[in-house]
Structure formats: structure tokens, C-alpha cells
Design a protein that fits this description.
By secondary structure, this protein is an alpha/beta fold. The chain is built from one helix and 22 strands. The chain has one domain: 3 Solenoid (UDP N-Acetylglucosamine Acyltransferase, domain 1).
């Protein structure tokens, strides 16, 4: 390997490797060297948590950017972006591949929660009058809360301001625009309560 190649590889991969080693050692967890961690000092991980080939962007002026509890799994190609606020995940949280969590307004997810692949927790735009450009409108920052023991199916979108109660199940492909009471099963676009869990 020539000097130019070795220099390139060091510049390209050393930050990822150092972040991986730093977080793994500090919190007694496993951070894959292929994970991309921006602002690792603003990331806190629980014991035995695993971060695979995910991207964590913890840019915030606050004391905490991204906090993940114990025995959790952040799978490949997940993006957690605090966007100046915070993302807090409880213990035993499993986030499957290709999920996106946007932290505007703060996102809080409880314990024993599963997000299937391609789930999105996103901000929303203020809807302007027709004589104003949509792109010039601000986004909402109310935050998203998901309780304990919740399962969110594949391809679900949960918009800013929504609270999902404990024990809920959200069916695949749903768009959740309103709060979901505890121990209910919801599905559809927009999602509606189908029945309660017995």
C-alpha cells in the first residue's frame, strides 16, 4: 500500500473507528466501526446496546443529544438526527433497518419498543395560504412521544406532535396524525383505532 492510499484510508476511516472505540469502551456496548457518529460527546449509550451501520447526528447545544438505554439495537442504515434537540430511547428498544428519527421538538421512546423497517418519525410544516411559498414556512417542533411496550409496523410515518400510549400496535403503512390511546391497535391513512388490546 502506497503512502497516498494509506493517508486517504486513515483520513476517511479513522474518525469512525475512534468514535466506535470511544463509545464502546465508555459505555460497555458495541458500536460497529462502520457506524457514523457525529458529535459523539453528545451521545450516551446504555450497557449492552448495539449500534450497527447506522448514522447518529447528535448536534445540539443542550446537555444531551441522543440517549439510548440498555440492551437496545440500532440496526443498519438507521438515521437518528437530533437537529438541535434530543432523542431519548429507553431500554430494550429495537430499531430495524432504514428507520429515520428526526429530533425536532424532542423525541422520547419508552422501554420495550420495536420499530419495524422504514418507520419515520418526522417534523411537519405549517400549511401556508395559497399566496405564500410552502418552502418558506416554518416546521413544527412539538415533539413525539412513544410509550412502553409499543410495536410500530413497517413503513409507518408518525408526524410531529403525536403521542402514542403504552401497549399500542400501529399497523404497517399507517400515517399517524393524532394521539393514540394506550393499548389500542391502529392502522390506515390516516390511522384509526381498529380495536383495543384485551
Amino acid at each position: 500500500m502506497n503512502k497516498e492510499t494509506s493517508t486517504f484510508l486513515l483520513q476517511r476511516f479513522r474518525p469512525k473507528l475512534l468514535s466506535s472505540i470511544y463509545l464502546s469502551a465508555k459505555y460497555n456496548c458495541v458500536v460497529d466501526p462502520s457506524a457514523t457518529i457525529f458529535f459523539p460527546s453528545k451521545v450516551k449509550l446504555g450497557k449492552s446496546t448495539v449500534i450497527r451501520k447506522a448514522t447518529l447526528i447528535a448536534k445540539t447545544s443542550k446537555s444531551k443529544g441522543i440517549v439510548i438505554g440498555e440492551n437496545s439495537l440500532i440496526d443498519d442504515y438507521v438515521i437518528l438526527h437530533s437537529r438541535g434537540d434530543s432523542i431519548t430511547l429507553g431500554d430494550h428498544v429495537h430499531i430495524n433497518p432504514f428507520c429515520v428519527i428526526d429530533g425536532h421538538g424532542n423525541v422520547k421512546i419508552g422501554n420495550n419498543v420495536g420499530l419495524a423497517s422504514h418507520v419515520r418519525l418526522v417534523t411537519n410544516h405549517v400549511i401556508p395560504p395559497s399566496n405564500e411559498l410552502i418552502r418558506n414556512q416554518p416546521i413544527t417542533k412539538k415533539g413525539i412521544k412513544i410509550g412502553d411496550d409499543v410495536w410500530v409496523g413497517t413503513g409507518v410515518t408518525i408526524v410531529d406532535g403525536v403521542s402514542i400510549g403504552d401497549g399500542c400496535i400501529i399497523g404497517a403503512g399507517s400515517v399517524v396524525l393524532n394521539d393514540t390511546p394506550a393499548y389500542t391497535i391502529s392502522a390506515g391513512v390516516p390511522s384509526k383505532i381498529i380495536r383495543k388490546r384485551q
